[in-house]
Design a protein that fits this description.
The complex is a heterodimer of chains A (about 100) and B (about 200).
Chain A lengths: L4 H13 L4 H13 L1 H22 L5 H16 L18
Chain B lengths: L4 H11 L3 H23 L4 H15 L9 H16 L9 H9 L22 H4 L3 H13 L2 H12 L4 H8 L3 H25 L3
Helix pairs in contact in B: 2-3, 2-4, 2-8, 3-4, 5-10, 7-10, 8-10
The chains are: A mainly alpha (about 100), B mainly alpha (about 200).
Chain lengths: ~100, ~200
C-alpha cells in the first residue's frame, strides 16, 4: 500500500537528511508521481530549509566581540594557564 | 571520527597563538554560534554567551582530542553555556504532544490526504523569498515562538550543517526524535512562508 500524504510529508523531511532506500523509496516516488500537492510540499520543504540557512548567514560577526576575544586570546598566550586534567572533549558535559 | 589534517593544523595554530587563525575561526563559526545561543538563551545575551563559550573553549583547547569536529565541539560548548544562562526553563514541547498535534493537523482529511495543501509560491528560491524584509522579520518572530528543541535542531542542522549523529550527541535525543523535531520545525517554516505568500502578511 502506498503511503498517505501525511506520511509522505514526514518522509520528505527525512529525505533532506538521509535519502530513503529500497521499497520505501520506491513507494515514495510512486506517490509523488501521482500527487501534485506532495511534490509541491517537498519542493517547498527544501526551500524552507535553505531559507533558514540563508537567514542565519545574515548574522554578521560582531566585530567588537571579536576584538575583545582577540585580546583575551593574546593574553592567554602571554600568560598561559597551567594545564589541568579536566575539560577533555571526550567528556560530553559542559567543558567549562 | 578521526581528526582531519586540516583541523589538526588549525588547532596547532590556535595553540601557538596565531591571531589570524583565531579571527578566521571566530568568523567562520560566528553565525551558527549566534543562532544556537539565540535559540536557547535569547538574542539579548547571545553575544555574552558566545564570549563565555570562547573563553571556555580556549581554556579547554589543549585537551581537545578531535573525537568530534571542532565545529561540533564549539557548538556543544555554546549550547551548554546558553543553557546555564537562560533565565527560565525553556518551553520544550514533548514528542507525544508534537505527535498529537500532527495527528489532528487540519490540513489533512480523515484519510490523511491533503485537504488544504500549500499554495503555489511566487518566489522559488530562498534569495527571492528573503527579498521581502517583512518575511525575514516574520520568520524570526515565528522561529522565536518554536519550542526550543525544534528551534535548536533546525538551526544546527539546516543553518549549521551539523550531521544527524552530531545533533543526537549534542541534544541527547534519538535519531527518530531528531527526525520529528526537524520535520515539525521545517513544516512550521513552510507554513509561515505559505501564509505570507497568500496574504502578504505575517
Amino acid at each position: 500500500m502506498l503511503p498517505t500524504c501525511k506520511q509522505v510529508a514526514e518522509q520528505l523531511s527525512e529525505e533532506i537528511d538521509q535519502p530513503l532506500t529500497g521499497f520505501k523509496k520506491f513507494k515514495l516516488k510512486l506517490h509523488l508521481l501521482m500527487c501534485v500537492y506532495c511534490r509541491r510540499y517537498g519542493e517547498q520543504l527544501n526551500i524552507s530549509s535553505k531559507t533558514i540557512d540563508l537567514l542565519a548567514a545574515k548574522n554578521k560577526p560582531n566585530e567588537e566581540l571579536r576584538e575583545k576575544l582577540l585580546s583575551h586570546f593574546r593574553e592567554c598566550h602571554q600568560h598561559p594557564e597551567p594545564r589541568s586534567d579536566s575539560n577533555s572533549d571526550s567528556d560530553k558535559s559542559n567543558p567549562s | 571520527m578521526s581528526q582531519s589534517e586540516e583541523e589538526k593544523q588549525i588547532i596547532e595554530s590556535l595553540l601557538a597563538g596565531n591571531e589570524l587563525t583565531f579571527k578566521q575561526i571566530f568568523n567562520q563559526h560566528y553565525s551558527l554560534m549566534y543562532s544556537v545561543a539565540q535559540s536557547i538563551a535569547g538574542g539579548a545575551i547571545a553575544d555574552e554567551v558566545i564570549q563565555e563559550a570562547w573563553v571556555s573553549a580556549l581554556r579547554a583547547l589543549p585537551k581537545f582530542e578531535g573525537r568530534s569536529s571542532l565545529k561540533s565541539w564549539l557548538i556543544r560548548i555554546v549550547a551548554n553555556e546558553a543553557k546555564t544562562r537562560r533565565r527560565k526553563e525553556a518551553r520544550n514541547v514533548s514528542l507525544e504532544a508534537m505527535q498529537e498535534n500532527w495527528a489532528t493537523d487540519p490540513r489533512f482529511d480523515e484519510r490523511a490526504h491533503w485537504s488544504n495543501p500549500s499554495s503555489q509560491w511566487h518566489g522559488d528560491t530562498p534569495e527571492d523569498l528573503l527579498l521581502a524584509d517583512e518575511l525575514q522579520d516574520c520568520l524570526k518572530k515565528n522561529l522565536a515562538k518554536l519550542p526550543e528543541n525544534q528551534r535548536v535542531a533546525l538551526q544546527m542542522r539546516d543553518a549549521g550543517g551539523l550531521s544527524m549523529d552530531e545533533l543526537c550527541n549534542i541534544l541527547e535525543v534519538s535519531p527518530s526524535n531528531i527526525r520529528v523535531l526537524l520535520h515539525r520545525a521545517r513544516d512550521k517554516v513552510l507554513q509561515v512562508i505559505d501564509h505570507f505568500q497568500k496574504t502578504g502578511e505575517c
